[in-house]
């Protein structure tokens, strides 16, 4: 299994390039934490063979967590989860017709035995943070960085509180 510091540890998959404005929020967080990732457009419906091959080979390529985002009949996270032992985090992408409720229900309602950890609609940022927290269970430096990130959040909200009270 590849094990250099450049080996992508997180795979970001999306069903269409139209998902990129949402899914690049995941990439931004991974970049901020200096965690190598790879990003692919893989469609459960339009490139099923490529998607399956990606999912089946990800673990052997050194990927530890997959973030998959799709909209509408959003089967990509579930179909990837069906083909890999890696944890899959699903991001339901907001749609123009049903506001992403269709995506959310498609991603979250997995059958027993094939879990997808489902984030909020357009929740790509939190998907990346959760991926970092998963990686952090085996990486003390990364866990410390997540701790510092949360501490910054606390400082930010305490600042808000101070301003509102002033
Ligand atoms: C899904 O269909 C994609 O994930 C995307 O959210 C949606 C629409 O895709 P495009 O028609 O924009 O390619 O498979």
UniProtKB/TrEMBL annotation:
Keywords: Isomerase, Purine biosynthesis. Pathway: Purine metabolism; IMP biosynthesis via de novo pathway; 5-amino-1-(5-phospho-D-ribosyl)imidazole-4-carboxylate from 5-amino-1-(5-phospho-D-ribosyl)imidazole (N5-CAIR route): step 2/2. Its EC number is 5.4.99.18. Signal peptide: none annotated. InterPro entries: PurE_ClassI (IPR033747), PurE_dom (IPR000031), PurE_prokaryotes (IPR024694). The keyword Isomerase applies. It catalyses: 5-carboxyamino-1-(5-phospho-D-ribosyl)imidazole + H(+) = 5-amino-1-(5-phospho-D-ribosyl)imidazole-4-carboxylate. GO terms for molecular function: 5-(carboxyamino)imidazole ribonucleotide mutase activity. Residues 8-157 form the PurE domain. The keyword Acyltransferase does not apply. It is an enzyme of class 5 (isomerase). Coiled coil: none annotated. SUPFAM superfamilies: N5-CAIR mutase (phosphoribosylaminoimidazole carboxylase, PurE) (SSF52255). GO terms for biological process: 'de novo' IMP biosynthetic process. Substrate binds at residues 16, 19, 46. Catalyzes the conversion of N5-carboxyaminoimidazole ribonucleotide (N5-CAIR) to 4-carboxy-5-aminoimidazole ribonucleotide (CAIR). Belongs to the AIR carboxylase family. Class I subfamily. This is N5-carboxyaminoimidazole ribonucleotide mutase.
């Amino acid at each position: 299994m590849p094990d250099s510091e450049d080996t992508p540890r997180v795979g970001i998959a999306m069903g269409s390039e139209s998902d990129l404005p949402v899914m690049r929020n995941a990439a931004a967080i991974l970049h901020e934490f200096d965690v190598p990732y790879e990003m692919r457009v893989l469609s459960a419906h339009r490139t099923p063979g490529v998607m399956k091959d990606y999912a089946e080979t990800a673990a052997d390529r050194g990927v530890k967590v997959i973030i998959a985002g799709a909209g509408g009949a959003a089967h990509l996270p579930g179909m990837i989860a069906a083909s890999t032992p890696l944890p899959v985090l699903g991001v339901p992408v907001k749609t123009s017709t049903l506001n992403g409720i269709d995506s959310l229900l498609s991603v979250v309602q997995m059958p027993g035995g094939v879990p997808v950890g489902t984030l909020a609609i357009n929740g790509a940022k939190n998907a990346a943070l959760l991926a970092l927290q998963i990686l952090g269970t085996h990486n003390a430096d990364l866990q410390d960085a997540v701790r510092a990130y949360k501490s910054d959040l606390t400082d930010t909200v305490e600042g808000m509180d101070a301003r509102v009270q002033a």
